[in-house]
Amino acid sequence: QVQLMESGGGLVRPGGSLRLSCTVSGSIRSNYASAWYRQAPGKERELVAAISSGGSTNYGDSMEARFTISRDNRKNMMYLDMNFLQPEDTAIYYCHVDPRLRYSDYGSRKADPNRGSWGQGTQVTVSS
Fold first, then answer.
1. Which tens digit of pLDDT belongs to each residue from 28-76?
2. Distance CA 128, CA 114 (A)
3. How far apart are CA 109 and CA 88, in angstroms?
């Protein structure tokens, strides 16, 4: 069983920055891939970025310009640095782990949202 916990969300003004963190705990091998998703009100959940244990990354559409995913394997932590935030970035941000997936599987049909583990999410609100 894998447990995920996100933190770092909050209210930020347009143009601001935030760093989200995800703590991964439980029974999981070390070479897992992990990902950040977000879900805005009234919209489907979408991939922000995924990362392998070796640091290879895979970003969702239009995400790479302002968002950076990273992880610290020793601490079992994953991060999302978000810059130049805009109101349309307002969403609940979730971290996800599915040991069966490679980082490159995220964003494809292999990434079944009904499988793997999700955190409870952290709210990011961008507003003046």
1. 777 899 999 999 999 999 999 999 999 999 999 989 999 999 999 999 9
2. 35
3. 25
Token pair in block for residue 87: 């109101």
Predicted local confidence at residue 27, as pLDDT: 78
What six digits make up the tokens of 60? 């969702």
Rounded-to-integer distance, Cα 75 and Cα 2, Å:
15
Q: Token pair for residue 83?
A: 């810059």
Residue linked to tokens 């995920």: 4
What are residue 51's phi and psi, to 5 degrees? -145, 145
DSSP, collapsed to helix, strand or coil, labels residue 45 as coil
Residue 56: both structure tokens together: 């290879």
d(CA 105, CA 103): 5
Q: Could you tell me which of 10, 35, 34 has the C-alpha nearest to residue 89?
A: 10
